From TrEMBL:
This is Fibronectin type-III domain-containing protein. Residues 181-224 are annotated as: Disordered. Gene3D superfamilies: Immunoglobulins (2.60.40.10). SMART domains: FN3. Keywords: Signal. The lineage of its organism: Bacteria, Candidatus Gottesmaniibacteriota. InterPro entries: FN3_dom (IPR003961), FN3_sf (IPR036116), Ig-like_fold (IPR013783). Pfam families: fn3. Residues 227-318 form the Fibronectin type-III domain. Residues 1-26 form the signal peptide.
Length: 363
């Protein structure tokens, strides 16, 4: 009898160990490569029911799982769960000069988890870059031109989750989209360029049904969508001295758009990674009396279009239209100006260029 009990105990223990300890080796830091290289600090939050994440998911509590090339899968041990309100600081050996892409372990059937992204060049002064739901891109804040640190803070809404073990945003990997040109010929932010880009549309309650357009391609490592057509950037005008208003044409098959802009023609150092499925967007927090140059891309689930032609805009009077050669008559409201997220799982150019499938099944 004792042997039987012992045998059962061994069997149970073996099974328990098996299901909790799959043979996973997370990616290693890639040094001068674009991915994160070391963990500076962590402050893991709690699960929805107030328990340490490690008590339920020890394999999701190893911060080094966020280093190196994202595995881009749903394997336990390949990502770090921040916990609600939790944070982590990652350091890069390579410089960050053009924003970062986040890869999350994602389950489309699970309520969306959200993270705030900040960048720093010294781990002391932090610059808000934006927020990301699932996979996504944040542009370089205008207040910093070259960073080495990324701070991620979970800002998921607990009220959107029913699972008591919900554990916040899951960091698989973080990649600099360009780490080769720091200190180069890029525009040096002027002291007058205070404030930050606000690329994140109005926060909306998480809705897992928003990801129902997977089209049965879950798990497929390819993009099922054709490259979207190129929109036309119709007009850039000024709503006030610090807010530019962009209007462009809708592209069939696209479900999101991206705005890039900068202070010199052809040099787009700022951006709004995801406007949502709209044709009208207001870019705020611009420096007053500064001329900006804008382009727009259409996005589908995994590919960007070619960019539009560039339009520039001099800051004009509050009621001024027609800047940049645009005709006031084309600026009628489209009704799409509410910038809620309609497909938050759309990824970014960089993620797309890596061939990542942006929707995965996991929490
Ligand atoms: Ca690296
Ligand atoms: Ca999670
Ligand atoms: Ca990983």
């Amino acid at each position: 009898m004792v042997k039987i009990i012992f045998g059962l105990a061994v069997l149970f223990t073996s099974f328990f160990m098996f299901v909790n300890s799959p043979p996973v080796l997370a990616a290693a830091p890639d040094g001068s490569g674009p991915w994160a290289d070391s963990v500076v600090s962590t402050n893991q939050g709690l699960t929805l029911n107030g328990q340490p994440v490690s008590s339920f998911y020890p394999l999701r509590s190893n911060p080094s799982s966020a280093l190196g090339v994202a595995e881009n899968d749903t394997t336990e041990g390949n990502f770090y769960s921040l916990g609600f309100g939790g944070s982590m600081v990652l350091q890069f050996d390579n410089p960050i000069s053009n924003g970062v892409v986040l890869v999350e372990a994602t389950n489309p059937e699970y309520p969306f988890e959200r993270v705030q992204v900040e960048l720093s060049d010294d781990n002391l002064i932090w610059h808000y870059a934006g927020t990301v739901v699932q996979d996504g891109y944040v542009a370089m804040p205008r207040t910093v031109s070259c960073a080495r640190y990324v701070r991620l803070t979970d800002i998921s809404h607990p009220a959107n989750f029913a699972d008591p073990d919900a554990d916040g945003y899951d960091v698989d990997g973080v990649m600099a989209t360009d780490g080769t040109s720091c200190g180069g010929s890029g525009v040096t932010p002027s002291p007058t360029l205070t404030g930050t880009i606000v690329p994140t549309p109005t926060d909306v309650p998480d809705d897992s049904s928003a990801s129902s357009n997977d089209g049965g391609n879950r798990g497929a490592p390819i993009c099922p969508d054709l490259k979207p057509g190129t929109p036309t950037l119709i007009a850039v005008s000024y709503k006030n001295s610090t807010t530019a208003v962009l209007d462009w044409t809708k592209v069939p098959g696209a479900n999101n758009y991206m705005i890039s802009y900068g202070l010199q023609t052809g040099n787009y150092i700022y951006g709004v990674a995801q406007t949502g499925d709209v044709t009208h967007y207001e870019v705020g927090n611009l420096a007053p009396n500064v001329k900006y140059y804008f382009i727009v891309y259409a996005l589908n689930n995994c590919q960007p279009s070619d960019p539009t032609s560039e339009l520039s805009s001099d800051p004009g009077p509050i009621t001024g239209y027609g800047i940049g050669g645009a005709e006031p008559t084309v600026l009628a409201d489209t009704g799409d100006s509410v910038t809620t997220i309609t497909d938050v799982s759309v990824g970014t150019l960089a993620a797309i260029s890596l061939g990542y499938l942006l929707k995965k099944r996991f929490i």
